[in-house]
């Protein structure tokens, strides 16, 4: 966490250097929390993943209780690869078919298998930030190492779906097998 | 103007040189001029193309680094970015490389000599490249989906580039020098095409002037200017020979004439001498007979005179002078 606070400080200084308005400095400084990083990472995932059917609008879905709060707001309306990014919070499993990236909250820890069974064949990239999710079959799972946000990868899950994840992304993660 | 004077000066310099030297000098001057020009053009082109290749190679390297470090940059994976940069180990002249995020903060660094040093000057340059005497820097944006997500910076050692360049230029210079030397010997051999007929002609001319051998003829095989010269020379010789023959014949004739005249003169002279001798003898005989006659005439003791038909007294003796009382001188030659 020390590094994070240092990053926080750096961002403040950076903000000071880059912007004139002090109000803006505060706003930017507030953004650099753990979930800010995770939100940016999720937006970046779109850049390294290919979906089998043409995409008109990228949809990032957050399932379960939303840990991002304000962090995900900056992603709303953002353009990724020239395509609009939309953030959704579907409440039912049936509504997940429209999603491209699905973040499964740690609140769904006990229902994780059922959720994964339900989305099988839906061509979506499953993401989590809960220990053990990757072993359950979530494709990309965030964890913290040395105060840095990292992710594990379940390659079997990716391979059994029809989405293609760039090797550039894959080489950054820690490989995890099914249990 | 100055060019004309230059050529004139050159001609002046050339004037007293033997033909052989002239030909070789002409060859050398033209060859050095041409090869010098060609060598310069090739060298400049070599330098430019080596530089171009070096730049495009560097851009290729940076492109590859950019592609492979894009994800690491976006997911802030320093270790992976460093791994990507380690690939540059395969390129010995890459001294330093760095990947920076879009605001210019250092994400990963690579140094060829592992000891930590200061970041080379120039990391703050914009995109592009720059050359110094010992190294070159390159900077290029890392793009992902038309968005600038960072930049890659590269410093390459120029020692190898310059080494290759010097080697190539050295080989070129060697080739130029060897060409000039070979050409020199070739021209030394081939200049005989011009100088040999000339020298033969010259030698013949010397023989003609030194020993007056006007019967000699030049070898006028070629149809070139030397052949023309030899033919002209031969014509001249023929004319001289003809005139010479005429002159000789004339002289011979004259000598014969002189001889004949001399002989005649000698004969006439001898005749004259003989005649003269005869006359002397005759005169002598006459004198003696007159003396005898006079002695008889004087010593008769009578006065005697001789009167010619025309009555002149041609001779009188002393007795007559005594008797007549006249001097002899008064009597002789007078009419009686």
Q: What does this entry look like structurally?
A:
Chain A is built from seven helices and ten strands. Chain A has 179 residues and is of the alpha/beta class. Chain A has two domains: 1-32, no CATH class; 33-175, Rossmann fold (3-Layer(aba) Sandwich). Chain A has an eight-stranded mixed β-sheet, with helices on one face. In chain A, strands 1-9 form a two-stranded antiparallel ribbon. In chain A, α4 (112-119) links the parallel β5 (101-104) and β6. In chain A, α1 (2-18) packs antiparallel against α2 (22-31). The two termini of chain A are 30 Å apart. Mean pLDDT of chain A is 82; it is low at 15-31. Chain B is rod-shaped and about 200 Å long. Chain B folds into three domains: 12-115 and 123-188, Beta-Lactamase; 212-296; 300-331, no CATH class. Chain B has helices spanning 2-15, 19-74, 78-86, 159-190, 192-211, 225-298, 318-324, 328-331; strands at residues 94-101, 106-111, 128-131, 135-144, 147-157, 305-307, 313-316. In chain B, the strands form two sheets. Chain B has a five-stranded antiparallel β-sheet. In chain B, strands 6-7 form a two-stranded antiparallel ribbon. In chain B, a hairpin with a 5-residue loop joins β6 (305-307) and β7. Chain B is built from eight helices and seven strands. In chain B, α2 (19-74) packs antiparallel against α3 and α2 (19-74) packs antiparallel against α4 (159-190). Chain B has 336 residues and is an alpha+beta fold. Chain B starts with a helix and ends in a 5-residue tail after the last helix.
Mean pLDDT of chain B: 87
Low-confidence stretches of chain A: 15-31
Report the radius of gyration of chain A as a whole number of Å. Answer: 17 Å
Number of helices of chain A: 7
Which properties best describe this structure?
heterodimer, A: 179 residues, alpha/beta, Rossmann fold, two-stranded antiparallel ribbon, 7 helices, B: alpha+beta, Beta-Lactamase, 3 domains, five-stranded antiparallel beta sheet, 8 helices
């Amino acid at each position: 966490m020390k590094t994070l606070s240092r990053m926080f400080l750096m961002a403040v200084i950076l903000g000071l250097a880059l912007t004139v308005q002090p109000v803006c400095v505060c706003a930017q400084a507030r953004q650099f929390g753990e979930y800010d990083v995770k939100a940016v990472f999720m937006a970046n995932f779109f850049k390294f993943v290919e979906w089998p059917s043409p995409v008109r609008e990228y949809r990032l879905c957050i399932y379960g209780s939303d840990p991002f709060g304000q962090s995900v707001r900056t992603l709303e309306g953002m353009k990724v690869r020239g395509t609009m990014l939309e953030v959704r919070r579907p409440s039912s499993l049936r509504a997940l078919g429209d999603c491209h990236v699905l973040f499964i909250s740690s609140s769904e820890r006990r229902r994780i298998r059922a959720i994964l069974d339900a989305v099988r064949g839906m061509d979506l990239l499953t993401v989590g930030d809960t220990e053990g999710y990757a072993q359950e079959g979530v494709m990309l799972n965030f964890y913290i190492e040395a105060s840095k946000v990292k992710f594990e990868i379940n390659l079997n899950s990716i391979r059994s779906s029809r989405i293609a994840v760039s090797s550039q992304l894959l080489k950054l993660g820690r490989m995890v097998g099914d249990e | 103007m100055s060019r004309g004077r230059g050529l004139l000066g050159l001609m002046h310099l050339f004037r007293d040189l033997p033909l052989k030297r002239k030909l070789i000098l002409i060859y050398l001057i033209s060859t050095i001029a041409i090869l010098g020009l060609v060598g310069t053009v090739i060298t400049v082109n070599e330098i430019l193309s080596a530089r171009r290749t070096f730049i495009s190679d560097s851009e290729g390297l940076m492109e590859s680094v950019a592609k492979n470090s894009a994800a690491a940059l976006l997911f802030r994976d320093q270790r992976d970015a460093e791994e990507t940069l380690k690939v540059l180990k395969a390129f010995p002249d890459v001294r330093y490389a760095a990947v920076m995020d879009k605001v210019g903060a250092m994400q990963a660094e690579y140094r060829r000599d592992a000891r930590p040093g200061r970041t080379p000057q120039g990391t703050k340059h914009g995109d592009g490249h720059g050359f110094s005497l010992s190294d070159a820097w390159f900077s290029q944006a890392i793009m992902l989906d038309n968005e600038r997500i960072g930049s890659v910076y590269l410093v390459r050692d120029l020692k190898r580039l310059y080494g290759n360049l010097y080697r190539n230029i050295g080989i070129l210079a060697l080739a130029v020098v060897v060409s000039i030397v070979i050409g020199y010997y070739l021209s030394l051999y081939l200049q005989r095409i011009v100088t040999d007929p000339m020298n033969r002609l010259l030698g013949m001319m010397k023989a003609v002037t030194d020993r007056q051998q006007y019967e000699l003829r030049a070898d006028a095989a070629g149809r070139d200017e030397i052949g023309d010269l030899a033919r002209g020379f031969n014509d001249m010789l023929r004319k001289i020979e003809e005139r010479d023959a005429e002159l000789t014949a004339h002289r011979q004739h004259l000598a014969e004439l002189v001889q004949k005249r001399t002989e005649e003169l000698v004969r006439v002279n001898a005749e004259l001498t003989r005649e003269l001798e005869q006359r002397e003898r005759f005169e002598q005989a006459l004198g003696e007979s007159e003396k005898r006659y006079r002695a008889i005439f004087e010593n008769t003791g009578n006065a005697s005179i001789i009167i010619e038909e025309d009555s002149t007294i041609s001779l009188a003796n002393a007795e007559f002078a005594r008797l007549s009382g006249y001097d002899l001188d008064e009597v002789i030659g007078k009419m009686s």
